[in-house]
Amino acid sequence: MRVLLVEDDEMIGEAVVDGLKSEGYAVDWVKDGGSATIALDTTSFGIVILDLGLPGKDGLNVLKDMRRKKNHTPVLITTARDTVNDKIEGLDAGADDYLIKPYDLDELNARVRALLRRSAGRADPIIERGRLTINPTTREVLFDGQSIILSSKEYALLFALAERKGIVLSRAQLEEKLYNYDSLIGSNAIYVHIHHLRKKLSEDSIKTVRGVGYILET
């Protein structure tokens, strides 16, 4: 759920950040290639949205550095470079998708969802975990067939747990998925969200693994 946006155009960047945040993503926005490389070397992201024509270090070189360092984070290139050779060069350098500017935010969001789904090894867009069903396209959550209303952070946390079936996620891992660099995170923020989710789902829906983290059990 955490996105790195690498875009030097202020107008495009602001629109994309607003659009992604409205979908519940935590977004970190950097505006040059050097900052992108530092962010990628120090933080784990779910996906990278990468412009190519960047100040300093070109986006294509950012991508090549990522893959050389065995960073397998999905990359969606967004650029005005629209020739077939440009697309081939980007995809051959390790990009997972290629979107030409100007683009529609709804299409961007759809491509982000598709890349996140593939990176999690899912073909079906709907996530089903026992009594729980999540539709990432509509952000609808059903538990025992009943629609559940969640806050954006509750949804993001539940999605993170549901996507990694059978995996225990630590508080630090969940914080990294839910919050960006600028967020002020309370020491008990994850616990509070977990508490609210248990109230809305069931007390045994999320198990605490003492000293390790949390796992979804439905």
Structure report:
The protein is an alpha/beta fold. Helix content is 41%, strand content 21%. A 5-stranded parallel sheet has the order 2-1-3-4-5, sandwiched between helices. A 4-stranded antiparallel sheet has the order 6-7-8-9, covered by helices on one side.
Distance between the termini: 21 Å
| Share of helical residues | 40-55%
User: What is the N-to-C order of secondary-structure elements (H for helix, E for strand)?
Assistant: EHEHEHEHEHEEEEHHHEE
Rg result? 18 Å
Tally the helices: 8
In terms of structural class, how would the helical and strand content be classed? alpha/beta
Q: Biggest sheet, in brief?
A: 5 strands, parallel
Number of strands: 11
- Beta-strand percentage range: 15-25%
Overall body shape: elongated
- Unreliable segments (pLDDT under 50, ≥5 consecutive)? none
Mean pLDDT, to the nearest integer, reads 91
Please list the strands of the largest sheet in the order they lie side by side.
2-1-3-4-5
Helix-strand layout with pairing:
Elements (H helix, E strand, L loop, with lengths): L1 E5 L3 H13 L3 E5 L2 H10 L4 E4 L8 H10 L6 E5 L4 H9 L4 E4 L4 H15 L7 E3 L2 E4 L4 E4 L2 E3 L3 H12 L7 H8 L10 H12 L5 E4 L3 E4 L2
Parallel strand pairs: 1-2, 1-3, 3-4, 4-5
Antiparallel strand pairs: 6-7, 7-8, 8-9, 10-11
